[in-house]
Structures are given as structure tokens and as C-alpha cells.
Amino acid sequence: MEKTYKGGCFCGAVSLVATGEPVSMGYCHCASCREWSAGPVNAYTLWRPGAVKIASGAEHIGSFSKTPKSVRKWCKSCGGHLLTEHPAIKLIDVYAAVLPTLEFKPREHLHYQEAVLRIVDSLPKHKDLPKSAGGSGVLLPS
Q1: CATH of residue 50
Q2: How many domains does the chain divide into?
Q3: Of these four, 4, 23, 27, 91, which has the most CB atoms within 10 Å of its CB?
């Protein structure tokens, strides 16, 4: 039986369920994620679209697309960020903190050339994105 992870927004108006395991987990340092999260880095969990379902409160979800690369979704009641859909790579980023029972095991850093907070660890640090996600595949030194 597949694992199920439940989460939702800050006020509880929206709940979601992620089933199975994420395709990847890590840290994104791009300016867009930093501005959206109001932090120096975004902890992401990437899922195939069929693995993420809105369990309740869909009517409370707002969305915004700054670029065609992402559709960011949040709760209109509390402003709590929920997820970002990435149509080009056909994955959904459910922010790591939204799924409290998922053990966050980061595998990589993305857009490390844009980092404002350098994290010293042994994880690969991609200049932008891996080749498999349409990036250069270039790795940067820690």
C-alpha cells in the first residue's frame, strides 16, 4: 500500500493529500522562489500530478503565474502557500513544510548560482537545473 501524506494551509481551509513518494526533494535558490516564499531558500518536494489531490477547500485556492513556467497556489483565506505547478516539467512542488509527516530528505540544490544563503553540505549544487529538467546540468562547487 502506498504511503499517504496529508497537509494543508495555515488556517486549515484547504487540505491536500500526496500519495506515494516524491520524485525529488531539495532546495531551490532561484529569485522567483525566494521572493514567493519571502525567505532565502525554498524547500521543495516534487510530485507527479496524479499523486497530489486537493482533499477539501478547493474554492479557497488562489493562483498566480508570473511566468508560464509556474502556477503558484495559495489559500485565499489565510494566504498560506500550498504548491506550485510546473507545466513544462509536468511536476508539482508541494512545499516541504506543507506535508508535516513527510521526512524531508533533500537530494540537491537548484539555481545555486542565484543563492543568497550558501548552504555547506555534500548535496549536488546545480547552476540552474539538471539536464533532465531542461537545465544546463552544470554543477557548482560548494
Answers
A1: 2.170.150.70
A2: 1
A3: 27
What per-residue confidence (pLDDT) applies to 134? 87
Residue 116 lies in a domain: no
Comparing CA positions, the residue from 83, 45, 46 lying closest to residue 62 is 83
3-class DSSP state for residue 93? strand
SS3 per-residue string spanning the chain: CCCEEEEECCCCCCEEEEECCCCEEEEECCHHHHHHHCCCCEEEEEECHHHEEEEECHHHEEEECCCCCCEEEEECCCCCEEEEEECCCCEEEEEHHHCCCCCCCCCEEECHHHCCCCCCCCCCEECCCCHHHCCCCCEECC
Q: What is the pLDDT of residue 116?
A: 97
CA distance 44 to 84: 10
- Print the domain residue range for 56: 4-107
Amino acid at 10: F
Q: Which residue has the cell 503558484?
A: 72
In-domain check, residue 122: no
Which is more confidently placed, 121 or 67? 121
- Tell me, yes or no, whether 13 lies in a domain: yes
What percent helix, strand, coil does the chain show, rounded to 5?
A: 15, 35, 45
